[in-house]
Write a structure and sequence with these properties.
The complex is a heterodimer of chains A (834) and B (197). By secondary structure, chain A is mainly alpha-helical. Helix content of chain A is 66%, strand content 0%. Chain B is built from eleven helices and four strands. The chains are: A mainly alpha (834), B mainly alpha (197). Chain B: InterPro entries: Calcineurin_B_homologous, EF-hand-dom_pair, EF_Hand_1_Ca_BS, EF_hand_dom.
């Protein structure tokens, strides 16, 4: 049945394609004013109102009016139908990558056109490719770039992209020239410069091809980002190299002197950095624009696309690297765009971006296939072609291994040998190389067609052959795959914990941490970029939290209602005695029903784990994570927003004893006050015999049990940490007590945010805070921020101070609170531990 | 300073530490000089106050817990051996090839030990379980005060649900390992003086 259906579909597609083609071919002939050799062309010609009319026509045939637009739309449709057909059968796509299949379907379509016209009327034309198909793919890659991963590996990516590409170009050009001189290719009219030009256009690994293949292989993310990042950035390099050598070829060998070569090198840097700068400028513009698009929410996603496209065109206009420009535009603006725009707009951008990128990727591959079916370009020269394929393959391996061998000496986690094999093997050439080859000037390069033909063969060899064998190779070499697992909340917290711990360990062992640039950037961003580029409302985390929290609660409520409806009654919603946390209740019910399954699993129906073919890294990532359930995402988000950043991200560039290190002074303040309070507690209890205000703390039953456990726990076998009691006792106000007020309806702070004083140091439960919301706050003096006391010996002096800063009744009222944060005295002389 | 440090540290001691922790000779001498500079009492051990004197730790939300992790239970002092033993948790994981003796105990920098270190940062009462309260305390330390207790509570609840497989509302070490198995353990490493090793 399924095969029958598929067959029908295939037939439909063929019919449509043929229909499109016959129309297309006719149109092309009309437009190129060739003599009409087609079959039926009588009625159409008069239809568009050219001839005198004798009577009012009811309908007219106006093909010429819409021919171009119609053909474009039709081709897009045909290409996408090809993809539909290919993706209909996962048995095939499991073994053969989609890109290879698309090229093959391009062969078939090209064959049909050839059969109809005896001439190839359609082929991938550089203008269409570079101005209409490529920009959205690049923008998508930039916009969905996992920034952290990208910048962590930026060094390796740049080395591969710049030096690797130059190496590929030079080695290929020179070797081919050498072989030519040695007589391996017979009679060819190609000089050294032309060989170098050819080498430079063949050098770049193609981002489209790489994404298409690696997306389906799921290698580990470091390997992925290196190959992908390289493929993105080296396009800039190739285009520069291509332009330089193109100019050299025009100049002719004799007129190239040292000055010209130096100019070439300078232009390389100008083009690359200039392009990146244009991109950054546009990224900033986008971010600024999205700050003020609140009132035109419907079209605000459009700005991203228009500006992204403009960044591409502007760079092109200034003859800078358009690809780099768009990439950096996307990389820069993503964070601010996501923060500034409405959630639905963000989603729209995301999906529209995917549609465009994936769609044009499909079209590119199909047309790469179609372009091959053309007798004109097939100029066979066994030596040239085979040697090119061979050299491309071999030099890629040599280049990658050599560069990575050097890089590995500086990497914390060296890239493994097998990963290097895959990196080399992943050197897929694609449409960029073809586009550049077509751009070659036939007057200057006699063997242009041979070069196009060779480029196509290299593209097919890499995309189809290497693409198909990539997956088995990855399996066979046991390359580390991306972990297919959800990131749990616990993991997130633990990760954060490790970050803090590492910073602490580095501090203790007295060394400067390793990611200097990242921390500098963070600092710069916090100080300069975020205030300008992000909406004030987005910057205020509180609003955001309540928003997220609100959504979270809404979801819980919806679940609850759905659950109630499933049981046929909403009675329990109105039932006052059932004042329980929605979720808790739900969970307990789930747990009753299915004790072995953790409740969050219940929503996970497995269907979302299906592979989603996609262009972008982000989708890649999402596929990896198999999509967590949305609520969890919210919680993750909440955490992301609020976990203290480990100081590593801020430090450096400062003296290590300087306390203004952490720019986010509120955080520093908070952490510091907690720490000091804490130390004060344990200090008091240890040295002064004053016990912390345990008795005043209203422990819940559970906590009391915990306490007992703590005491017993000392006998435990695990090697322990000491001084647990210091913590137990000093965080009473943080411990969770049930806050559901009976009879008060469902406690949902999201619905009454006003009850929450938005002050930073707010730690009192809202019902206590009503009287004097500010009383719990001790505004730390500026001095306190600048000079922290260094040891608990100084702490106890501080302990007395706060009492005077607060009224007694405040103290009474908050006596389940900790002693207030100290206001530190004038600083002690810095201890000379440094 | 380095020369003084190495003078004070006997060669055989270095050898022992090397064997136990896997640090290189130069790393050990560097860290020893750091150790002595922290050691204000100059008695060859560090006290809590010595650690607390490090200014950066005061603004590290987990600072005091990490300090505590350096001290064996019930002790107030840590000597250089103990100091290095704790630091060794954060050495990069080595490939198994160096592991000549499989019967030997697991190296301190192994995956499990790294995770155990983290687990103990949570597990204050050392009952081998992270209870909701313990988790909350850690969360409270790491999360800004902008999040209300209720929100934090719901985060803690979800966290425990995610990880808890046997339904005791606590996270045992096994559950912890399982839940954290995607943690890129490579980030849990510090490179000590990369140009010395």
């Amino acid at each position: 049945m399924a095969t029958l259906w598929r067959f029908t579909l295939f037939l439909c597609m063929l019919l449509m394609a043929c229909g499109g083609l016959s129309l297309a071919s006719k149109e092309a002939k009309t437009r190129s004013s060739q003599t009409e050799t087609g079959t039926h062309n009588t009625t159409e010609e008069g239809g568009h109102g050219a001839g005198p009319i004798t009577t009012l026509p009811i309908v007219t045939w106006k093909w010429d009016h819409i021919s171009v637009q119609y053909l474009v739309a039709l081709w897009v449709l045909v290409c996408w139908l090809c993809k539909l057909l290919i993706e209909a059968n996962h048995n095939v796509t499991n073994y053969i990558p989609e890109s290879a299949l698309l090229i093959c379907s391009g062969f078939i379509l090209g064959g049909m056109i050839w059969g109809a016209d005896k001439v190839q009327t359609f082929s991938l034309n550089p203008t269409v490719f570079f101005y209409f198909l490529l920009p959205q793919i690049i923008l998508d890659s930039g916009y969905h770039m996992p920034n952290k991963l990208f910048f962590t590996n930026l060094g390796a990516i740049l080395i591969h992209a710049v030096i690797g590409t130059c190496w590929n170009a030079a080695s290929l050009g020179l070797s081919l020239w050498g072989c030519h001189m040695g007589g391996a290719m017979g009679d060819l009219d190609i000089g050294l410069l032309q060989y170098l030009l050819f080498g430079s256009l063949m050098a770049a690994v193609d981002p489209v091809a790489v994404l298409a293949v690696f997306d389906q292989v799921h290698v580990n993310e470091v390997l992925f980002i290196i190959v992908f990042g390289e493929s993105l950035l080296n396009d800039g390099v190739t285009v520069v190299l291509f332009n330089v050598f193109d100019a050299f070829v025009s100049l002719g060998g004799g007129r190239i002197n040292a000055a010209e070569i130096i100019k070439g090198i300078v232009s390389f840097f100008v083009v690359a950095f200039g392009g990146s700068l244009v991109g950054i400028a546009f990224g900033i513009l986008i971010s600024l624009l999205t700050r003020c698009t609140k009132n035109i929410q419907i079209i605000e996603p459009g700005f991203i696309f228009v500006m992204g496209y403009l960044s591409y065109l502007t760079a092109e206009m200034l003859s800078l690297s358009a690809i780099l420009s768009t990439t950096f535009c996307g990389v820069l603006c993503q964070k601010y765009v996501r923060a500034n725009m409405d959630e639905s707009s963000v989603q729209t951008v995301k999906y529209a971006m995917k549609v465009f990128a994936n769609g044009s990727e499909t079209i590119i591959f199909v047309f790469l296939g179609i372009s091959a079916i053309d007798k004109v370009i097939w100029v066979w020269n066994t030596g040239f072609i085979l040697l090119t394929v061979f050299f491309v393959f071999v030099y890629r391996f040599i280049g990658v291994f050599f560069l990575q061998w050097i890089l590995n000496r500086y990497r914390l986690v060296p890239v493994e040998l097998m990963d290097m094999v895959i990196m080399s093997y992943g050197g897929l050439r694609g449409a960029v190389a073809y586009g550049l080859a077509v751009l070659l000037d036939e007057k200057k390069i006699k063997e242009k067609n041979l070069m196009i033909c060779t480029t196509l063969i290299v593209v097919y060899f890499t995309v189809i052959l290497q693409g198909i064998t990539m997956k088995p190779l990855v399996m066979w070499l046991k390359v580390k795959r991306a972990a297919v697992a959800e990131v749990s909340l616990l993991e997130k917290i633990t990760n954060k914990m490790f970050n803090h711990t590492l910073v602490a360990i580095e501090d203790i062992s007295g060394q400067i941490g390793d990611n200097y640039f990242r921390s500098k950037w963070r600092h710069f961003e916090e100080k300069w970029m975020t205030p300008f580029l992000m909406k004030p409302s987005a910057r205020k985390k509180q609003d955001d939290v309540f928003d997220v929290f609100h959504q979270l609660n809404l979801k819980d409520a919806m679940e609850y209602v759905t659950e109630g409806e499933r049981r046929g009654s909403l009675e329990f919603v109105r039932n006052d005695s059932a004042i329980l946390d929605f979720k808790k209740k739900l969970e307990s019910e789930y747990t009753e029903a299915m004790p072995d399954i953790p409740p969050y699993m219940i929503h996970d129906d497995g269907a979302i784990r299906d592979h989603i073919p996609s262009v972008s890294l982000e989708m890649h990532e999402q596929t990896m994570k198999a999509m967590r359930e949305p609520e969890a995402v919210d919680v993750h988000h909440l955490l992301d927003q609020h976990l203290y950043k480990s100081r590593k991200q801020y430090r450096h560039g400062f003296s290590r004893s300087d306390f203004k290190i952490n720019r986010d002074e509120k955080e520093v303040q908070e952490i510091f006050q907690r720490t000091m309070r804490n130390r004060l507690e344990s200090f008091k209890s240890a040295k002064m015999g004053v016990s912390p205000p345990k008795t005043l703390v209203k422990y819940s039953k559970k906590e009391q049990q915990e306490k007992v456990k703590t005491k017993r726990g000392n006998k435990h076998t695990l090697p322990p940490f000491t001084d647990a009691s210091g913590y137990d006792s000093s965080y009473p106000s943080f411990s969770m007590r049930a806050t559901y007020r009976p009879g008060g309806g469902i406690e949902n702070p999201a619905f009454m945010p006003d009850l929450y004083p938005t002050d930073l140091l707010q730690e009192i439960p809202p019902w206590l805070a009503e009287g004097e919301p500010d009383s719990s706050m001790v505004a730390p003096s500026l001095r306190a921020q600048a000079n922290l006391p260094n040891s608990p010996m100084e702490m106890h002096r501080l302990g007395l101070l706060p009492a005077s800063t607060r009224s007694t009744d405040t103290k009474q009222m908050n006596n389940d609170q900790l002693p207030p944060p100290p206001t530190p005295p004038p600083p002690p002389p810095p201890s000379g531990h440094m | 300073m380095g020369s003084r440090a190495s003078r004070l540290l006997r060669e055989e001691e270095i050898e022992e530490i090397k064997k136990e922790t896997g640090f290189s000779h130069s790393q050990i001498t560097r860290l020893y000089s750091r150790f002595t500079s922290l050691d204000k009492g100059e008695n060859g051990t560090l006290s809590r106050e010595d650690f607390q004197r490090i200014p950066e730790l005061a603004i590290n939300p987990l600072g005091d817990r990490i300090i505590n992790a350096f001290f064996p239970e019930g002790e107030d002092q840590v000597n250089f051996r103990g100091f290095m033993r704790t630091l060794a948790h954060f050495r990069p994981i080595e490939d198994n090839e160096k592991n000549k003796n499989p019967s030997a105990t697991e190296p301190l920098n192994s995956r499990t030990n790294k995770l155990l270190f983290a687990f103990r940062l949570y597990d204050l009462d050392r009952d081998d379980k992270i209870s909701r309260d313990e988790l909350l305390q850690v969360l409270r330390m790491m999360v800004g005060v902008n999040i209300s207790d209720e929100q934090l509570g719901s985060i803690a609840d979800r966290t425990i649900q995610e990880a808890d497989t046997n339904g005791d509302s606590c996270i045992s070490f096994n559950e912890f390992i399982k839940a954290s198995f995607v943690v890129n353990i490579h980030i849990c490493t510090v490179v000590w003086f990369p140009f010395l090793s």
